Input
Amino acid sequence: MEPSRIAVAGASGLIGGTLAKSLTADGHEVVRLVRREPRDESEVRWDPEAGRVDAAGLAGCDAVVNLAGAGVGDRRWTDAYKARIRSSRVLGTGALAKAVAAMDKPPRVFVNGSAMGYYGETGDRAVDESAPAGTGFLPELCVEWEAAAAPAHEAGVRTVFTRTGLVVARGGGAWGRLFPLYKAGLGGRLGDGRQYWSYIALHDEVAAIRHLIDRDDLSGPFNLTAPEPLTNREINDAMGRVLHRPTLFAVPSPVLRAVLGEMAGDVLGSQRVLPGRLLESGFVFAFPTVEDAVRAAL
Output
């Protein structure tokens, strides 16, 4: 891909920040959307909850990537925090989609974040992008989140949704919390350990987003997960092997529910999500196994 101008919302987060660095390293001009007063021409002001975007700052962008949103695992799910999780995603996506749709020369592609939470509980059943949405807070959120991008799609802008799994990285997300525990020899399965975790190495997450930006023939939802989801018990064993630490501890389900509240349902829930469309498009994973992904993170 020739050097181009690409806007990134959520560039202060784990995935957005890594994506911005990757694009910049390859000579692209990255425009970061910020909530404060911009410091220079590389920043554009926006207020996602208020639905405001300085659309003039997006002029000349070949792509707009929206990865912004309050962290799902950052704190206990009170009603107030669930409302914040929702508004930061749905209102922000709607604001950006409307800004993109109103541009005289809109970008070539609008990539909007989503999550494998779209599918809800799947148990042992493997699902790809053809599966319907599940039920519950996260599936309903993902449906609304993706629907908020409609203005861009209706304006003829190629629109892509990245239904991301658990990102294996030291710098944030669920795995960022797991690494210190396992390094201290305190790792172990969660609940009965039979629940499937669909993961992806941070490197592959960013590479997949760039693949979706570059390919003009790709649109709609894509599962950003490694090809072979594993159970929590299998991942626990792999973490122990790679880090050379015992994995004897186990956190019983009632304890998780007491500590995490409603969010425990997602930790204990099973999601066996496959990257069907991503593989069909020719994407090649650099770190397809959990051992690969963990070593890459280290």
The mean pLDDT is 92.
